[in-house]
Amino acid sequence: MLHTRSIAAAAVAACLGGLVLMPTQSQAAPGSVHLYKIYYDSPGSDTRTNTSLTNEWVQIRNTTAAAVSLTGWTLVDAANHRYVFGAYTLGKGKTVTIRTGKGTNTAANRYQGRAAYVWNNDRDTATLKRSTGAIVDTCAYNSTKVDYKMC
């Protein structure tokens, strides 16, 4: 009988210990606005057609519980090619794709309107900054084995 109580006490202690280690709702991460994916080598040959240019892109994801204004925020590469967000709000849980080529801006896609590539096919660094210039996130890649980088 004593042996059974010891096992039961150990099981209760293990369960309570597990509860102590589990994060509470208030300890959970609040989310962020961050670089999510860079598709730096568009499919096919680099022909500088608008189709090829719009297939080179960077995605930004909002994992916060609220919409975030990106107005005035910038996305830059290592060579300082800049995309500046105009009036734009990224909804909670949403992702926006910033495409290099020309197109009509929507909630899900923004266009830089460029006639040349921004993201190098071998290595580069994307940096997302607030309108104040404060760095929000960076994502670097250094590979020609794949065409994209998950940040």
Write the layout of secondary structure elements.
Layout: H1 2-21, E1 33-39, H2 50-54, E2 57-62, E3 68-69, E4 74-76, E5 82-84, E6 89-90, E7 95-99, E8 109-111, E9 123-129, E10 135-142, E11 148-150
Parallel strand pairs: 7-8
Antiparallel strand pairs: 1-2, 1-11, 2-7, 3-6, 4-5, 4-9, 9-10
Give the percentage of residues in beta strands.
25-35%
Radius of gyration, whole Å: 22 Å
The stretches of 5 or more residues where confidence is low (pLDDT under 50) are 1-29
Instruction: Tell me the series of helices and strands, N- to C-terminal.
Output: HEHEEEEEEEEEE
Q: How many DSSP helices?
A: 2
Q: Summarize the biggest pleated sheet.
A: 5 strands, mixed
**Residues in helices, as a percent range:** 10-25%
Structural notes for this entry:
This protein is α+β, with helices and mostly antiparallel strands and 151 residues long. The chain has two helices and eleven strands. The strands form three sheets. It has a five-stranded mixed β-sheet with strand order 8-7-2-1-11, with no helix packed on it. Strand 9 (123-129) and strand 10 form a beta hairpin.
